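SAMPLE LOG
Freezer: B-3
Tube label: C17
Construct: single chain, 493 aa
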Amino acid sequence: MTRRASARIARIIFLLAALALAVALLLGLGRCASRPVNPPLARIPAANEQRFEGMEQRRGEHDDLVILAFSGGGTRAAAFAYGVLETLRDTEVPSSSGRVRLLDEVDLITGVSGGSFTALGYGLYGEKLFDLFEDSFLKRDVQGALVGRILNPLNWPSLWSSRWGRSELAAQLYDEILFHGATFGDLQRTAGPLIAVGATELTGGARVVFLPQNFDIMCADLSSFKLSRAAAASSAVPVVLSPVTIDNYGGHCGYRMPSWLQAFADQKTPPRPAGRILRRLQELEQMDDASEDRYFHLVDGAVSDNLGLRGVLDFLEALEALRLAGKPTPLDHVRRVIIFVVNSASSPSFAWNEEENSPAALSILVKAAGVPVDRYANESIELLRDIDARWTAQRAIRDSAAFDKKKDPAVAWVANAVNADIHAIEVSFRVVTDKQERDYLNQLPTSFALPADAVDRLRAAAKKIILSSPDFKQMLATSGRAAVDSAPGPSGR
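STRUCTURE (predicted):
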């Protein structure tokens, strides 16, 4: 063998050894990468034990309970929800103390997936969000930045780790561009509405809502949990992004079910409206025993609740059930429940029925995922209206001259009917009257990168939909009467 051939072989061996060493180092570094660990709660704070839903602690007693429910849908959802915030900021309603902005009357904002960014952003920054959200998030190529990080070899060691995945990389990005290290402790110290963003537990499909009352069951400290990780979990589209893993410490902090909730669990035949909250109890029971479920792996909240509305429905029926059982609630003073259902689900057009050939597999997958979501969204609106109709009917029976609960004990429970009306205001592409604009909105993709003009059209669409909504106009028309009814009388009471 010549000296030149020997040198060439030696170089090849050296390069192979160097490559093997590099791979070994990368794999070793990857094994060292680890997700953030949420700490346990040693004891549940006493203030948490009897909390109903937390809303009554934010703004005190007032006649209107205003709820915003933001759906999933990437930047499309975030921009559409942002347009709702802008519209409510610019809309004033009469109150017992004068005219107030409708946005300042909001008590609760729920959000899943793309909608969670707008919900968390407003909860954290309040009015400042209107100065930073467009540049920081809405008109930024967030998806491109995330793909760039995934393709960066410097991140590969961590991505190869079984304890650290693409969603943790996404959480780091969201933290840098929007949340800047903020935690739920920071969120809880703000004076704004209660923010409830949700994810889906992968094994059982249960909703995991980032609220103290949910994390208390897990004996887990929510206050130190970063908002960026909650947003990453809520928007972790299965397969595309990895689950966000959290630790469960349930059974080790002395958690006790609130008395108002225990009242349902103890009854053999609780009032029928309690059925929904009892099913939610069954979901939560899987979180209270860490010996069986040590970890929870969270994916996109839209999987279990694309509108962020299931919790609202649970709450309304729990309120009704408590009232019918003759039990007081912290929200008995409420006279109107105003719910903006902000649904950014798109329905891309398919000309399948015009062609003989079968649709492509990818198109079928997209459509199959969207149809149940769209149908559930429409049903949720109808459920809200059904609850309102039921409450109205119960009050009509109670207030009728023929009603006497002493003579007719079978309907005695009607005496405790809820005194609130529900105004469900649908904000969705479905109600856009301009066909050309509706088709445009429905073709916008579910991604975290949209052109700036698409973001602006989504915001404008939200405003137009709200201001032209018959339900919104009816709500405004009753605002004046509600303000007069709740104004202090001559005695000051």
